[in-house]
Design a protein that fits this description.
Layout (H helix, E strand, L loop, with lengths): L6 H10 L2 E4 L22 H15 L4 E6 L7 H10 L3 E7 L17 H21 L3 E5 L3 E2 L7 H18 L5 E5 L9 E2 L4 H11 L3 E6 L9 H10 L3 E6 L16 H13 L8 E4 L8 H20 L3 H9 L3 H12 L4 H10 L6 H8 L1 H8 L11
Parallel strand pairs: 1-2, 1-10, 2-3, 3-4, 4-6, 6-8, 8-9, 9-10
Antiparallel strand pairs: 5-7
Bound molecules: 6-deoxy-beta-L-fructofuranose and manganese (II) ion (MN) (2 copies).
Keywords: Isomerase, Manganese, Metal-binding
GO molecular function: L-rhamnose isomerase activity
Organism: Streptomyces flavidovirens
C-alpha cells in the first residue's frame, strides 16, 4: 500500500496490471429472447484476436485473450498462438465448455451416467492439450451442473463425482499450469448447483493442491453478497486464482465491469492490493457480453474501469487508515477510504498512458482509428459468441 503522495509508485503499479479480454465478448450475444447482430463482428477466432489486438493497442494493458472451447475451435492452436503473437497479443486462459451438448442435460462431470462423465472429463483433458499448444497457464472450469428439483439426484454423490473429475484433470496439469474453479450460485440449475459458492470451490481446490485455485466471477453472487470479503479471505489463504469481471444488477447480467457498482469494484480492488494480489498470480479477466452496445469500445471502457478502480485503491493512504483503525476512529477510517474513492484518477491514468506511449484517451483514439468502419465493410455475417442465444 502506498501513501497518497506516492504517485510514481501508483503509476508503476498500474503499468504492471494486465486485464485479459474474453474472445466471446467480441462476438454477437444476447438474451434468450433475442440476439441483436452487430455489423463488423468477427467471423473467426482469428478476427476476434484482431479486435483484441486493437483493445490492447489503445489501452496498453490487455495483452492476453481468453479462449472458450469449442466456441473458438481451430485445427491448429499453435498456429493460432502465432497469429496472436504477430498481432501483439497472446492467448490466455482456456475456458472449458461442458454445458452445450444435449448429453449434459443432467450435468457433465456430476452426471449420474458414467459415460457422460467420461465425455466431460475427456473435453477438459483436451483443453489441457490445447493449453500445451498455446502456452496458456490457466484452465478455467465452470460447470452448469446441478438439479432443478429436490430428490432429482443425490447431492453427496454428485460431489464425489465432481471430486473424481477434478482430480483427473489436476493430475494432467503441467508444472506451470493451473486450474481455476469458478462458482455460481444458480443458473441454469435452479434447485442445487454443484459448485454454488466460494466455500465449495475452496474445499475442492484445497484438497487438490496448489495448482487448483478459485476464480471469482463478480456476477455469480446473490444480491448483497460482500464480494470483497470473499476476495480478502481467498487471498489470505493463497487460493484466489483470478477474477471474471462483469457487472450485475439482477442475476448473471454480464454487463460492463464497473458499470453497475463502481464502488464495489473499488472495494474489491482495495482488498486485492491489501492482499498483495496485484503483484501475484491473480488473473484479471473480463467475462462480459455486449448485447446492445458497440463491442470494442465497450471492452476498452471495461479495461479502463478496472484501471480506475485499481488506481483509486492504490491511492488509499495505508498509514492513515491503519492509524484510524487502531485508534477505533470509525469515521476517520471510513473517510480515508472514501477520500481515495472520490479522487478523480482520470488525469493520473492519462499520464500513465502517455508514459507508455499511447493516446491518453483510448476510446477517442479507437474511434479515430477507422477500425470500426474497416470491419463493418470487410466482415459480413459475423458469428454469435455462443452465449445467451
Ligand atoms: C457462466 C460463465 C462461465 C462461462 C462464461 C461464458 O455463467 O460465467 O465463466 O465460461 O459464463
Ligand atoms: Mn464467468
Ligand atoms: Mn457467468
Amino acid at each position: 500500500m502506498t501513501s497518497r503522495s506516492d504517485a510514481p509508485a501508483v503509476k508503476a503499479a498500474l503499468k504492471t496490471q494486465a486485464v485479459e479480454t474474453p474472445s466471446w465478448a467480441y462476438g454477437n450475444s444476447g438474451t434468450r429472447f433475442k440476439v441483436f447482430a452487430q455489423p463488423g463482428v468477427p467471423r473467426t477466432p482469428q478476427e476476434k484476436l484482431d479486435d483484441a489486438a486493437r483493445v490492447h493497442e489503445h489501452t496498453g494493458v490487455a495483452p492476453t485473450v481468453a479462449l472458450h472451447i469449442p466456441w473458438d475451435k481451430v485445427d491448429d492452436y499453435g498456429a493460432l498462438a502465432t497469429y496472436a503473437k504477430e498481432r501483439g497479443v497472446r492467448l490466455g486462459t482456456i475456458n472449458s465448455n461442458v454445458f452445450q451438448d444435449d448429453d449434459y442435460k443432467l450435468g457433465s462431470v456430476c452426471h449420474p451416467d458414467a459415460a457422460v462423465r467420461r465425455k466431460a472429463v475427456a473435453h477438459l483433458l483436451e483443453c489441457v492439450d490445447i493449453m500445451d499448444a498455446t502456452g496458456s497457464r490457466d484452465l478455467k472450469l465452470w460447470f452448469s451442473d446441478g438439479t432443478n428439483y429436490p430428490g432429482q439426484d443425490d447431492i453427496r454423490s454428485r460431489q464425489d463425482r465432481l471430486a473424481e473429475a477434478l482430480a483427473a484433470v489436476y493430475e494432467r496439469l503441467g508444472d506451470d499450469q493451473r486450474m481455476l474453479l469458478e462458482y455460481k450460485f444458480f443458473e441454469p440449475a435452479f434447485y442445487t448447483t454443484d459448485v454454488p459458492d466460494w466455500g465449495t470451490a475452496y474445499a475442492h481446490c484445497l484438497k487438490l493442491g496448489d495448482k487448483a485455485q478459485v476464480v471469482v466471477d463478480t456476477g455469480h453472487h446473490a444480491p448483497g453478497t460482500n464480494i470483497e470479503f470473499i476476495v480478502a479471505l481467498l487471498l489470505r489463504e493463497g487460493k484466489l486464482g483470478g477474477f471474471d469481471f462483469n457487472s450485475r444488477f439482477y442475476a448473471d447480467d454480464d454487463l460492463m465491469v464497473g458499470a453497475a457498482d463502481p464502488f464495489q469494484l473499488f472495494r474489491i480492488m482495495y482488498e486485492v492490493i491489501r492482499g498483495g494480489g496485484l503483484a501475484s498470480d491473480v488473473a484479471f479477466m473480463l467475462d462480459q457480453c455486449h448485447n446492445i452496445e458497440a463491442k470494442i469500445p465497450a471492452i476498452i471502457r471495461s479495461v479502463m474501469n478496472v484501471q480506475e478502480a485499481t488506481a483509486k485503491a492504490l491511492l488509499v493512504d495505508g498509514t492513515a487508515l491503519a492509524e484510524a483503525q487502531v485508534s477505533g476512529d470509525v469515521l476517520a477510517a471510513n473517510a480515508v477510504l472514501m477520500d481515495a474513492y472520490n479522487t478523480d484518477v482520470r488525469p493520473l491514468l492519462a499520464e500513465v498512458r502517455e508514459e507508455i506511449g499511447i493516446d491518453p484517451d483510448p476510446i477517442a483514439a479507437y474511434h479515430r482509428s477507422g477500425w470500426a468502419q474497416k470491419i463493418t465493410e470487410e466482415r459480413v455475417g459475423g458469428t454469435q459468441a455462443g452465449w445467451g442465444a
